[in-house]
Design goal:
The protein is an alpha/beta fold and 523 residues long. It is 43% helix and 17% strand. The strands form two sheets. It has a seven-stranded mixed beta sheet. Strands 10-9-11-12-8-13-14 form a seven-stranded mixed beta sheet, sandwiched between helices. A hairpin with a 5-residue loop joins β2 and β3. α1 packs parallel to α5, α3 packs antiparallel against α4 and α13 crosses α15.
Length: 523
């Protein structure tokens, strides 16, 4: 039987123990059962067999996805040649795993999470069946009397309730009470004001010592957190009154464009942009507009309809994509690569067909993306801008003035389309996505090349035959389809001619409603 555990297996054991999926003793016992020459793959299969015993098909698939993430994490950590925390590598214990038990006991992190990348939280039973409103949520007033393990459980319960209560975010910030975001609005869920000292403890209670060290050094951090089948994007930062934590709930599946609220005809236009073998497709919108979810939907479309190699670079990986008809490779900033622009440079040597960039936020990343789009790759990226014209201006503004004419010419030739989106209340108690679509026709390319981005809006407003639309036209179409209220459409419209069309449509609908009501009364 093998007596020495390889470094990548050690890292996998460390991750499993930290996440309370296995004890160190169980991991060591599984390793001893393997024949000589076994490695990470064989050990991971034994772990899967052990944990999946008695589970259904859906639960087993979820477990497989989570285990695959830990395997990728272990492999990437082992490439650096370093041993897991609390293990100096000097002594090779016969079972190769005793040090992980010591690490778990000394870490002080209740529940534990991986030191980088996606985090999986296991080992806690959560019953939220009786939580129907904010009043049913557990209070944080007694957090000083809770142990780290009990406080971690309290945070996990709050997160687990977000989806059931229809919330998208949880905010735990020093100097204020706990808040959630529901239907775009902030709601207080607790009267207790979190002190600066409490804010640090409650926002770091799920962190391992290594992640805590990184946070204390950099004063901010972000990562993905998994609790059961739910995933969250966590952003921590130091502020005037302690630590502020933002926990955003990620959709529990890859949504289609139709599910996200894009109209059928516009879905056809968007999907057509993904048929090109090269070029640049941009998803834009303000922070919190759902760009990541839309980006995942586009990646899933490519994954289904093409036979290519997709490389996605994200910070962090929020929605896991499995290879279907394409080979889908996901890389995470901080875990798998240092930065977006270094990942892009490396991606060009990895035989990609499609490159997905989670955020194009600096000169090097934008320049590499445009270059990749020109050299035979389809590049899909996001930009935090408000509309199509500002998206093009944002691309140009990061470059020095002397370089802007060259970038303008490159963009006019490589751009395929821009999708800008916002979230607004739908007027019926929910949220709707509104958007504008810019397709790079010959007229659009000329405007970009000549530096006349300010004329793009008028070109979009008359470009319906090419699949283009403005925010106002989208609002009008959604009102006509009954997806948003008249009040919402009128509130967010800007163009007077479209407002006139809206009022005419409203009058027509009112007339039809009154006629139907009279007919009903006669019966």
């Amino acid at each position: 039987m093998p007596t020495e555990m390889p470094l990548d297996v050690r890292w996998l054991v460390y991750a499993l123990v930290s996440n309370q999926a296995l004890t160190a003793e169980d991991a060591a016992a599984l390793w001893r059962e393997l024949p000589d020459g076994a490695g990470l793959g064989e050990f991971a299969q034994e772990v899967l067999n052990r944990l999946a015993e008695g589970l259904g098909e859906e639960e087993s698939q979820s477990l497989l996805d989570q285990l695959q993430e830990l395997i990728e994490y272990a492999s990437s950590q082992a490439e650096g040649g370093e041993y897991p925390p609390e293990s100096d590598g000097a002594e090779e214990e016969e079972d190769g795993a005793e040090e992980y038990a010591e690490s778990e006991e000394s870490s002080g992190a209740a529940g534990g999470i991986a030191s980088a990348g996606t985090v999986l939280f296991h080992g806690c039973e959560i019953d939220i069946s009786e939580i129907d409103s904010f009043e049913d949520l557990p209070s944080l007033a007694d957090m000083d009397q809770l142990s780290d393990e009990e406080l971690a459980q309290r945070v996990v319960v709050l997160l687990a309730c977000l989806r059931q209560l229809g919330c998208s975010d949880l905010h735990l910030t020093g100097g204020g009470p706990a808040f959630v975001r529901r239907q775009l609005l902030i709601h207080r869920i607790d009267d207790h004001v979190i002190t600066p000292e409490q804010s640090k403890r409650i926002n770091t209670v799920l962190l391992t010592p290594e992640r805590l060290r990184i946070f204390e050094e950099e004063q901010d951090t972000n990562f993905a957190l998994g609790i059961g089948k739910d995933r969250f994007r966590v952003c921590l930062m130091v502020q005037r009154e302690g630590v502020s934590g933002s926990y955003r709930l990620i959709p529990d599946h890859i949504c289609s464009l139709e599910e996200l609220g894009f109209l059928p005809g516009d879905c056809v236009t968007i999907k057509r942009l993904l048929d090109y073998n090269n070029g640049l497709v941009l998803v834009a919108g303000p922070i919190g507009a759902g760009k990541t979810t839309t980006l995942a939907a586009l990646g899933d479309i490519v994954n289904e309809k093409r036979r290519d190699h997709i490389i996605s670079v994200e910070d962090p990986i929020e929605i896991v994509q499995n290879s279907r008809n394409c080979q889908f490779t996901q890389r995470e900033i901080g875990r798998d690569t240092r930065s977006y622009h270094s990942a892009l440079k490396a991606a060009l040597r990895e035989d990609p067909d499609v490159i997905i960039i989670g955020e194009m936020n600096d000169l090097e990343t934008i320049e590499n993306a445009i270059t990749a789009a020109e050299t035979g790759h389809l590049v899909i990226g996001t930009l935090p801008t408000g509309d199509a014209a500002n998206t093009l201006n944002r691309i140009l503004d990061v470059f020095p003035p002397m370089q802007q004419p060259q970038i303008r010419a490159m963009t006019s030739g490589s751009l395929r389309g821009v999708l800008c989106q916002k979230l607004v209340p739908d007027g019926f108690g929910g949220v709707a996505v509104i958007y504008e679509i810019l397709v790079n026709t010959m007229a659009v390319a000329n405007l970009i090349g000549e530096g006349k981005a300010f004329q793009l809006h008028s070109t979009m407003s008359i470009g319906s035959k090419a699949g283009m639309c403005t925010y106002d036209q989208c609002l009008l179409a959604k009102y006509d389809a009954g997806l948003i209220s008249y009040e919402t459409a009128m509130q967010y419209m800007q163009d007077a001619p479209v407002k006139a069309q809206l009022n005419a449509l409203w009058a027509e609908k009112e007339k039809a409603r009154e006629a139907a009501e009279k007919k009903r009364r006669r019966k």
